[in-house]
Design brief:
Layout (H helix, E strand, L loop, with lengths): L3 H5 L15 E3 L3 E2 L5 E2 L9 H6 L9 H19 L2 H4 L6 E3 L8 H18 L10
Parallel strand pairs: 1-4
Antiparallel strand pairs: 2-3
Length: about 130
């Protein structure tokens, strides 16, 4: 039951394509009447929002900073997702994060801090060589 919130962690409003595979997370845009594209990350894990409030403001780092770290985190996450016998089954969802898509500062900020929150809560180090 502890993993149930984790399964829901990457629930995105307006982002899941109807033809997406059940084990693949796709970041799909929602086009508003103004033709603007907006992405949103909704994290259901208990404690995440409290953790996020305790972090520096979104503008503390640049969007490129968050994108670079997210790309590295997602790459390692997906590697661990594909090897559950080696890493366990806590990496239940494949993340389809594409560096050629502009997800915006807010989503990149929230995703970056989700990875940091996940490391803290689960006692794992996704990127052991990182220096902040």
């Amino acid at each position: 039951m502890k993993r149930f919130p984790f399964i829901c962690v990457f629930t995105f409003a307006f982002l899941l394509a109807s033809n997406a595979q059940s084990d693949t997370l796709r970041f799909e845009p929602s086009e508003e009447e103004t033709d603007s594209v907006e992405y949103e990350l909704i994290v259901i894990d208990p404690g995440y929002e409290s953790y996020l409030v305790s972090q520096p403001p979104m503008e503390f780092y640049s969007k490129q900073y968050y994108e670079n770290w997210n790309y590295r985190y997602v790459t390692e996450w997906n590697h661990r997702h594909m090897a559950p016998l080696q890493y366990g089954d806590i990496y239940e969802v494949y993340i389809d994060y594409r560096p050629d898509i502009d997800y915006g500062l807010k989503l990149n900020y929230r995703l970056y801090h989700y990875f940091r929150f996940f490391e803290k809560e689960n006692g794992v180090d996704l990127l052991p060589e990182k220096v902040f």
